[in-house]
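To the wet lab folks,

You asked to see what we're planning to order before we commit. Fair enough. Below is the target structure as tokens, and below that is the sequence we designed to fit it. If anything looks off to you, flag it before the synthesis order goes out.
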């Protein structure tokens, strides 16, 4: 498998993977509006310095993805950003072969070159072992507020 940083031309393949991921998570069906939103986001963000995506492919087919978002922290001199891994996904027929681990290792290697101290992500209990193998430590500090609820 080839692991590489995604380019603008990879946007359609990333959109397709993200749509599969959200569908499997039980989110809204990947309707035209959602797919358009994914595509527009990637067109804006793939060339930007605060976003990067990686993909793992075999025989020209994208099998695994992972993305990194940087958030600037005000008032810091050297460690100026925090990083968040999102949209880590492997297509169903390719799971269990270590593809996500390879893609995440590429993402982590890139994050180590940035002015970032910590890399965060949210995960399901099923994927926790994958992230622990890459070096993540489980934490319970992450909290969430749904702003759509009163």
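Sequence we intend to order:
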């Amino acid at each position: 498998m080839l692991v590489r940083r995604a380019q603008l031309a990879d946007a359609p393949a990333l959109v397709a993977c993200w749509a599969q991921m959200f569908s499997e998570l039980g989110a809204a069906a990947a309707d035209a509006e959602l797919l358009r939103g994914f595509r527009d986001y990637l067109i804006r963000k793939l060339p930007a310095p605060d976003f990067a995506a990686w993909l793992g492919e075999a025989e020209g087919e994208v099998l695994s993805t992972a993305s990194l978002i940087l958030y600037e922290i005000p008032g810091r001199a050297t460690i100026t950003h925090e990083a968040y891994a999102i949209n880590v996904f492997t297509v169903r027929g390719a799971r269990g072969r270590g593809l996500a681990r390879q893609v995440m290792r590429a993402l982590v290697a890139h994050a180590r070159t940035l002015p970032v101290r910590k890399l965060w992500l949210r995960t399901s209990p099923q994927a926790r072992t994958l992230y622990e193998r890459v070096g993540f430590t489980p934490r319970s500090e992450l909290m969430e507020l749904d702003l759509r609820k009163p």
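Structural context that might help your review: The mean pLDDT is 89. The first strand starts at residue 2 and ends at 5.

Thanks,
Computational group
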